[in-house]
Automatic annotation (TrEMBL):
GO BP terms, alphabetized: amino acid metabolic process; ethanolamine catabolic process
PANTHER family: ETHANOLAMINE AMMONIA-LYASE HEAVY CHAIN, ETHANOLAMINE AMMONIA-LYASE LARGE SUBUNIT
Organism: Pigmentiphaga litoralis
Keywords, sorted A to Z: Bacterial microcompartment, Cobalamin, Cobalt, Lyase
GO molecular function: cobalamin binding; ethanolamine ammonia-lyase activity
Lineage top rank: taxon: Bacteria
Positions contributing to substrate binding: R160, L161, Q162, N193, E288, D363
Protein name as catalogued: Ethanolamine ammonia-lyase large subunit
Metabolic or biological pathway, per its Swiss-Prot or TrEMBL entry: Amine and polyamine degradation; ethanolamine degradation
Swiss-Prot/TrEMBL cofactor(s): adenosylcob(III)alamin
Length: 464
């Protein structure tokens, strides 16, 4: 059905909910590329006014991508919790925004409501929110997960230690890994983006990571970010895999572009669970998403890229991951053109995922051909820290030498912890103190060449 509103002296009509959502979205290059964006600021504001009056129930009755042809839509509708939705079922999108920002709407209320909120509802309300609204509401969402340590507790910030190398050189990876550990990074995961897809080469990386973790009894988890089918095959061959990784998207077609289906992802989770490697919990998946993935594969069905991204969080929620993150600026300026668009997208992604009950981090990043710089990333980093981000990336020097993009460094995490008073995962914090890497207050110590971690570097360079 059409949606109408008047703005100043002009009348506006939007033929369906999908169009209304796209026109209400803050400006970004991906929606402009797809021909979905509002043509003027006035049209965008008119769409937001109309969207504010849409009942939340409409998103259950008027799906944006057909139920019959898209398994992500079926997942969203079939798993919707009507009982959790009931207390907010009378809200419009505007009412929902107001409720989210109330002081009386606390973490317990948001946790209770999460199973009743669909991705489209989350995306819709985010379009009505200022950046500070996204920070405030996300900060109230608490999502805690566990494998060998506890991720997502209030007042905590974890870091994925990302020791990539362009040739998968084990000595280079080990050196970057030790560098990160000595800076107090790695409590989210030690995760490698490999250059090779050879199972033999990948198994060597899994074995090296596990040897280091076990040798020093590090309460964290490791991951090699290769395709899920390769990881299932490696599990069958006995590789020491903690977390199974996969990139996911918000439509069936986009996921097929990644070479996955929901059933395959469930199979991968079951394979990881069968290893029983977690000591504190059974959150065994690590998932990555990013605005523009559905559009880049031509699988967006005319839905704006931010709403498609929010739908990816329904996939994540189904798989009960330890970690999920948006690689917000990685896909490039064709989808998020400049620092302003990247900042907005990062705040949206974090808010929508946390609102849906997904443990959300962010790769606060940009490619070198985007109109962005490290100052923009500092702004997003600080705002996400205030918003209660679950984890960020720790890349040596903030410059990934394998993927050739700009991210956040070990020092950036130290900055954020110092400014906002954030601690690491509690088990990892205790280990750092035990290893004399930090003092009792969690501050880094000066580490000499005789430190236990450094003495073991030659052995680790052989991958044993």
């Amino acid at each position: 059905m059409p949606y109408r509103t008047r703005f100043e002296s002009l009348g506006y009509m939007f033929p369906d909910l999908k169009t209304l959502m796209a026109k209400a979205t803050p400006a970004r290059s991906g929606d402009q590329l797809a021909g979905l964006a509002a043509s003027t600021y006035e049209e965008r504001m008119a769409a937001r006014i109309a969207l504010a009056d849409v009942p939340l129930r409409d998103f259950l009755q008027n799906v944006l991508i057909p139920y019959e042809t898209d398994e992500v839509t079926r997942l969203i509708i079939d798993t919707h919790d009507a009982a959790a939705f009931a207390p907010i079922s009378h809200f419009t999108v505007g009412d929902f925004r107001n409720w989210l920002l109330l002081d009386t709407t606390d973490s317990a209320a948001l946790t209770a409501a999460a199973p009743g909120i669909t991705p489209e509802m989350a995306a819709a309300v985010s379009k009505l929110m200022r950046n500070q609204d996204l920070v405030l509401a996300a900060r109230k969402c608490s999502v805690v997960t566990r494998f060998r340590n506890t991720i997502g507790l209030p007042g905590r910030l974890s870091v994925r230690l990302q020791p990539n190398h362009p040739t998968d050189d084990v000595a280079g990876i080990a050196a970057s890994m030790l560098d990160g550990l000595l800076y107090g990074a790695g409590d989210a995961v030690v995760g490698i983006n490999p250059a090779s897809d050879s199972l033999t080469a990948l198994t060597r990386l899994w074995q090296m990571l596990d040897d280091v973790r076990a040798r020093f009894e590090i309460p964290t988890q490791t991951c090699v970010l290769t395709h899920v089918t390769t990881q299932i095959q490696a599990i069958e061959r006995g590789a020491p895999i903690d977390l199974v990784f996969q990139s996911v998207a918000g439509t069936e077609g986009a996921n097929r572009g990644f070479g996955v289906t929901l059933d395959l992802l469930r199979e991968a989770r079951a394979a990881a669970l069968s290893l029983n490697r977690g000591t504190l919990g059974d959150n065994v998946m690590y998932l990555e998403t990013g605005q523009g993935s559905a559009l880049s594969s031509g699988s967006h069905h005319g839905v704006d890229q931010q709403t498609c991204e929010a739908r990816a969080y329904a996939v994540a929620r189904e798989l009960k991951p330890l970690l999920t993150n948006s690689v917000v600026g990685f896909i490039g300026p064709e989808y998020l053109y400049d620092g302003k668009q990247i900042i907005r997208a990062g705040l949206e992604d974090h808010f929508c995922a946390k609102l849906l009950g997904v443990p959300m981090g962010c790769d606060i990043c940009y490619t070198n051909h985007a109109e962005a710089d490290q100052d923009d990333m500092d702004t997003l980093l600080t705002m996400l820290g205030a918003a209660g981000i679950t984890f960020i990336m720790g890349v040596p020097g903030a410059d990934d030498i394998m993927l050739n993009y700009q991210s956040t460094s070990f020092h950036d995490a130290i900055y954020l912890r110092n400014v906002l008073g954030l601690k690491r995962a509690p088990e990892f914090e205790a280990w750092l103190e035990k290893m004399a890497i930090t003092d009792t207050a969690g501050r880094l110590r000066d580490v000499g060449a005789g430190h236990a971690l450094l003495r073991q570097l030659p052995d680790m360079s052989q991958g044993r």
